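Message: A physicist's question: would you kindly supply an amino acid chain plus fold tokens?
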Amino acid sequence: RGGRGMSAMARVKNKQPAPVQITAEQILREAKERQEADPKPVPSKITDADELAEYRLRKRKEFEDGIRRNRNALPLWVKYAMWEETQLEFDRARSVWERALEVDHRNVTMWLKYAEMEMRHRNINRARNIWDRAVAILPRVDQFWYKYAYMEEMLGNIAGARQVFERWMLWEPEDNAWTSFIKFELRYEEIGRARELYERMVTVIPKLETWMRFAKFEGKYGKAEQARGVFERAVNELGEYAMEPDLMIAFAKFEEKVQEFERCRAIYKYALDNIPKSKASELYAAFVAFEKQHGDREGIEDVIVSKRRFQYEDDLKQNPFNYDIWFDYARLEEQDGDASKVREVYERAIANKPPSLEKRAWRRYIYLWIYYAVFEELRMGDEERTRAVYREALKAVPHGSFTFSKLWVLAASFEVRRKDLKAARAVYGRAIGTVPRDKVFRSYVELELQLGNVDRVRTIYEKMLECFPANCRAWTSFAELEQSLGELDRARALFELGVEQPLLDMPEVLWKAFIDFEIAEGENDKARALYERLLERTSHVKVFISAAQFEAGAGEIQRARDMYKRAEKILKDAGNKEERVLLLDSWVAMEEGLGEEGSAEEVKKRQPKQIKKKRPLQDSEGNNTGWEEYYDYIFPDEANTQALKILEMAQKWKKQKTE
């Protein structure tokens, strides 16, 4: 029975949602709308002195009970004192304020309301007493001083107000307090006193703003010389803190106002040279406006230079490793003609070393050093600075990773121009000992050749060949030097040593120079032997053509023909059709050059026919992707073989058909 009762209570007959849904917000809003207003207290009227005394007793008891419960409840103290004031019980009100100050004598609001009560009821001496106590206890609260001085001024007690300000200034307050004192003196036209206050203020608070206020004051009430003196003192005494656009713009506009345009221009230029470019945008705009109004052509050009200088500084701030901008910046300063600025730009530029050790990243950077050295040498004529620039440039390059031969050569060339051969040789020696490079050797050789020091040249070449035994140009140049000196045996020995090297960078150059040397000396047999030695190492078509042309040039036509035949056979066996075509073209040209003695027609019969063919194109995976056309050559001796192949294929096809 109990189970049936529980199921009957939990059963829901209608599970459908109600047609009107009510939210919790609607329920709360409806409750608020139906809420009845609180009953207003019934006003009580006091009709006699007894009721007033009873009312005051009751209120005082409430205030006292509240204070006993929470003695630190300062708002309660304020309400208590103000209530006593409304009852015109001033002695009681003063007693409450004094008791409250005993609880918290550092509460600013208490002092203010206490003094304001006395001021409202014109108890001046009592108010002065309260202000004196307040400023003695809390001298750093500016509001006390302001109200104290204001009260004295409103009473017409100017001397008393000034005395309050003087007492305040002994505490060296912020600049707003000084400004208030100065404005007070100006209201009564005490210009001399105001000037003295400004002098004291800039001594106590040597800030940019105080100096600018002082200068503005002198510009308004004093003479131009006095205002200018304030600006100049500000620049001198503030030092680096004076390099602010606001001060310089104010100084320049003052000079413009008094028609001192040259002074104004000088101030703008000085400021633009010394103020960081990141803060000089407003200064530059003011300078441009000044030049447009009062400047001449040169002044406008200076503005343009300043504008470009400002743009370069802005670009370099974003990317100091953009060396192209440094080049343009240095060129701009060189055109302007100020050597100190040019040097400053170059020094700043070379301080930005490339972060990477890749030679590609250093190429533009090195030219900064080179241009710097060229400027010092050609424009300034300063040999010591030029030498120092080259020395520091060579130190800056990471020679362990790479070097720049051009830098070594330029440094040595500078010493040569200064006629200091010992220093030049020392530079070359350092270069060869540190990072030997072909260009450095060749430049050193050229210098010693010009001086006629053959033994030194030989020594340099020997060192060069020790460092670069595969350098064919070095072998060739050394041998040609000996040839020019008539040392044929030495030259021939050098060529022999060169061609016997196991590894050469351009062997064809060395072999050609060796053969040309023997031909020039009339040693045809030795030249012929060299060709044979070369053909043992290579079967390149150009070597055969050169050998055949040598024989033809020597009048050995049959030898030349034999060389062509030999080459054709080798190329035919190797299957190099294109090289074979080149060979036959050269052979035909030789025969045609012989005229009637030649047999050009016979050689032309050996030339192939050019045909067009197709072949499949394949990708990296070996799949056919299409067809391409190419040209092939069929030589006469291959035509019969080709015909036999076609006939054989035809017979095979016929046999398959029959079967």
Notes: The two ends are 107 Å apart (CA to CA). Residues 1-7 have pLDDT under 50 and may be disordered. Residues 240 and 274 are 9 Å apart (CA to CA).
